[in-house]
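Page 47, continued from p. 46.
Same chain as before, 444 aa.
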Amino acid sequence: MTTKKRFDWILLVILMSYFMILLDNSIIFTGTVKIAQDLQLNQQTLSWISSAYSLTFGGFLLLGGRAGDLFGRRRVFQIGLVIFGIGSLLVGLSVNAPMIIASRAFQGIGSAILAPTTLAILMDTYDGPARVRAIAYYGAMAGIGASVSLVIGGVFASLLTWRVGFFINVPISMWMYYLSVRHLQKDGGQSGKLDWLGTLSSLFGMSALVYSIVGTWGKLSALILAIVLLVIFVYQEYRTSQPIMPLRLFKNRERIGAYLGRFLYLGAMLGFWFITPQLMQRQLGFSALMAGVAFFPLTIVNFIVALQVARLTAKLGNGRLLTIGIFLTLIGMTWMSFFTVSTGYWLGIALPMVVIGVGQGLSLSPFTAAGVAHTDVRDAGAASGVVNVMHQIGGSVGLSILVSVQDLFKNQVIGFHYAILIGAGLLLISLLAAIFLILPEKQK
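Result:
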């Protein structure tokens, strides 16, 4: 067991690195209107700025987790910091759509290396009650970081420029690199090789799937290509002796429920985070700053609730707490689908956000714990990678669906209504996954 001092520094590195990733995954949402004006982007191109990041993030996550297992988590973590810092700098310097989309994709590769590596370091470092607390903080950061990022993005976009939200990652990355040298333990890794066929087939398969949803032409062809590539990926993972995603991870029903539930949950939430700030700016006349501040009801409640997760998990159990959290998120999302301009911000958005914030605060930590439950040391990186894959790819697919649904209607409020209802439908299926797959395992 680590000493108190070491516990603090390692946990700081883990949580700060994860927060940095989440910052750039969500900070862009409250700045979308400003980015669109600055770079002259339409709505679908705007959604690809987020999707490009999520796709490379999700596509390379399994490789990032496996690389940490093979070459040592500290070394791979530091490589991820360098890539992420350079990518952030390039995003901030972008002058047109191709440059910002390509830079976001490059930045996503850095995130794909960092995310599973940080969670695997956590799994390696802590055990027993200390691990439960550390996972609770890590899972809480997923919701807190995403919510706080919306506020930060609004502040930068209104008072400075949206570019500052990306430039700020450069010194943070440098600081994290220094702390990793000082406080993360060297590890030699394991013998083995990387599964490049699995990596590329999963990356391009998921990219084709998302394009089949948001693309303007060739949707059927993209869908067929996605199916073919994903079948190749699964077969490759079945036949290879050193897979990036060991299929044995899916032999446990609790982990299956966690992966499926997280995929659907983040699909609903990322779409919600993307379209709601735009609604507030275009229909309620909010500035980017005010749209960010308008997320305070969710952010504050989420923060307070997330800090109680470790205690509540010990009292109620991981499965029950997760079920309650998803249910409350579903209630809040359904409530928000009734928004009209006449109901205004407080009744139509703020109060539903409070309910969503409670649900989100109760959900993400248990999702993380269930996703890495009952895994041994050799699969720590892979299991961490799958957790983050479902987080990112689920968010990207859900975002694509909700944006596509909203764009079917000329009236933004009506489009928002139906898009949020679709998000509520995703949450309902996520809830069923928790009830029928995760709860039975926890009650054994």
